Amino acid sequence: MDKHPSSHHTSSHNEPADLFLAGGTLINVYSGELLEANIAVKNEKILYVGPSTHQAGKGTRVLEVGGKIIAPGYIEPHFHPWDVYNPVSIGEEALRRGTTTAFSDDLIFYIEMGPKLFQDFMDAFSKMPIKYYWSLRTAPQSPMKDEKQVFSVENLTDVLENPLIQSIGEITRWMDLIDGDPEMARVIARTKELKKRVDGHTAGAKYDKLNRLAMAGIESCHESINGQNVLDRLRLGFYVMLRESSLRPDLSLLLKAVARSHVLTDRLLLTTDGSMPEYYHRHGVTDHLIRIALKEGIDPITAYRMVTINPAVYFGFDHKIGGIAPGRDADMVILEDILNPTPETVISRGKVVAEKGRLIEPFPEVEWEKYFPAASFSKREWVANKDLFRIPVSGQITRFPVIELLNPAITRTDWTDFDSKNGFLDVDTSRFLIVAVISRDGSWITTGLLKGFGNGIEALVSTYNTAAQILVIGSNTEAMRTAVNRVLEIKGGIVIYNKGKPCYELPLPIGGVMSEKSLPALAEKEKQFQSILFSKGYPHHDPMYSLVFLPNDFLPEVRINYRGIIDVRNNKVLWPRRDLV
Fold it and tell me: CB within 8 A of 184, min separation 6: which ones?
């Protein structure tokens, strides 16, 4: 397939191409045709598309691709490169499967680094073999002590100017937008001036609310869970990101509705959102989404457009990425067949970076300690004691808001009467698990009770969550204490204790949220984690998501975080946190 010719004509006005793809069939996302064409690449750009061979000269690397399909590199429009994996390990996986550009969520990076260091970090990642662009959150996903300062309008507008930021990240606190939050309105106005996008997270918004969100500036949403959601958003001018993730494998259902209603597809994009390592390892990344679309009978060129030119147009980047034409970035995939979207060869930034599913070389090393210094895990030295998990009450009988898990992410409040004993809630841990969120520096704790997580867990401690704090779930306060202290010792990770001993440990040294391990190794660790939890009675399909979302502030119905135990819908504290220092 690959040869280096010694003598070809070169056109007088051009030096020979660096790379020449000879005889392939191109998916032309501009015209909607399959066209036979040669493609010449020079200095990371596409130099020529057409019948001529003049650009192949001395020193040109020629790939003979007769009988093969050439598509633009795939674009992931809504990526979370911090779900236990890190942007290197998930980037390597995505790239070898054909995703050459990812528009990625900055949440954990911005919270832990602050605006200045985060910009240095983006800069370091701009040189990776996969192109990383970023979306900027306007608020955390779980309340923070100093959030007003960290997410000040000044900080946000400063970072927003950075050319590597291409949108405001999904606005999870959309009720604030409807209520006319002036600071959010200022940031959105500045985003529009810069001609950048405003990504929404409009889960649960009915048609009238969607009207108001569109009016407030929201331009896209990835939260459709049925066909009507897709149509409502499309009809109101949103770009609709159709999702298939380990938490919500909805894409087949959504595409059936698209096919049935014969709507235009130019504003439809496909995303894997934040899927877990095992899911990516087993199914693939963007190639998996195309495969589902083809299976649902979506016309092949339409399916490829949803992961190439459509997202490029959304981000105003179609002059650069998303198609194969002169002057565009040389990001392409070579496919054996249009119906098999997992590439044989991946070209990114004008170079062959993967062949037969393998990266030609690993990504450059990242100096993680610079961005996530181990010393910043906790601001002070402290250890947990087992009394930490007792819930102080006054009076003999207390009505308490128990958190009941209905699926991996959604909860409801189960108000239950408890007796008290020596001034504390008297809890039967064979019926309820204790759940707590503790700040990493041990300065505050919110303690609650949990149902619907299985009752066999002695102690599970995780710093992998949207608050980037310490989440504790268990029935044995001695094991919980020991597990918390172990997590403090390793400066972040997921630890499970059984029969008083550790039975699972996944260190997360990168910010307490990410591992430096490869994606296949993490997929193995996740399978082990799932099998322990399933054996202890966890009844849902994706336990990692329960860890991520318990401390957040936007999913129904009840959450546990810095503010306390919170009724999300009514924005009400049901049980307060305790300050420890």
Answer: 138, 139, 171, 173, 176, 177
Strand partners, 270: 242
Report how far residue 109's alpha carbon sits from residue 566's, in angstroms, rounded to the nearest whole number: 25
CA–CA dist 487, 378 (Å, integer): 11
**Which positions ≥6 away from 372 have C-beta within 8 Å?**
112, 113, 509, 510, 511
The verdict on 449 and 564 lying in the same domain is yes
Instruction: Flag whether 215 is in a domain.
Output: yes
Closest C-alpha to 439, from 379, 399, 505: 379
Of 326, 355, 384, the last residue of a domain is 355
Which residues have a Cβ under 8 Å from the Cβ of 370 and sit 6 or more positions away? none
Instruction: Convert the pLDDT of each residue in 378-390 to its tens digit.
Output: 999 999 998 999 9
Phi-psi region of 208 (alpha: psi -120 to 50; beta: other; left: phi over 0): alpha
Give the pLDDT score at 8.
39
In this predicted model, what pLDDT tens digit does every residue of 149-175 receive, in sequence order? 999 999 999 999 999 999 999 999 999
| Structure-derived torsion over alpha carbons of residues 57, 63, 68, 71, reported in degrees to the nearest 10 | -80
Q: Residue 42: inside a domain, yes or no?
A: no
The percent of the chain in helix, strand and coil, each rounded to the nearest 5, is 30, 30, 40
Which residues span the domain enclosing 145? 72-355
| pTM summary value | 0.96
